[in-house]
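Tutorial, part two.
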Amino acid sequence: MYPKDEVAGGTWIGASSKNRMICLLNGAFVKHDRKLSYKKSRGVIVKELLGVSDVFSEIQQYDFSDIEPFTLLIVDWNSELKLIELIWDGVKVQISDLPLEPKIWSSSTLYNSEMKSFRKQWFQEYLSQNGSSSAELLYFHEHYGVGDPMLDLKIDRGLLKTVSITMFEKKEKDIQVVYKDLLRDNTSELMFNSILISDVE
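Running the prediction step on this input gives:
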């Protein structure tokens, strides 16, 4: 289950009956120069990895060549709950097994290292003052910042702006999806049994 990118057919976040959720961020460690074309959309990789039986084996042998740099966050609960970060910088892939604790990521195509540092500070401050319930995290992503639309969690840089917020939350065997359309000020909430999820377009 995933929100579909109508242009490339991929997605930026999704969950599957393979007991995993995956989230995509554009870029790797630093902002890169884009080529005119690539062999595959990064969002299509999310769909592919949601459907494989063993995602850890798949990412070890996957051919990422000629794919634009990206960061993947993989949450898998097949044998035990795991959080994996995969970063492809266009040359090599880095795969890390991360501790199960709150963390914020910021796309390198949108934020430089100083901006990322600000956002990490805000996140830690917010968690210490408010906690990490789904409602609190949703509020953080829509409203937090310093009143600078170039930097805040919800950006507005003219042609480039935050148009939606998508949240997936696993609750025992169910997965709740919240999609907030910021342009139309509309929120959709769906609940699915994670065992019964199949690709829906």
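The first strand starts at residue 13 and ends at 16. In part three we will examine how such features are distributed along the chain.
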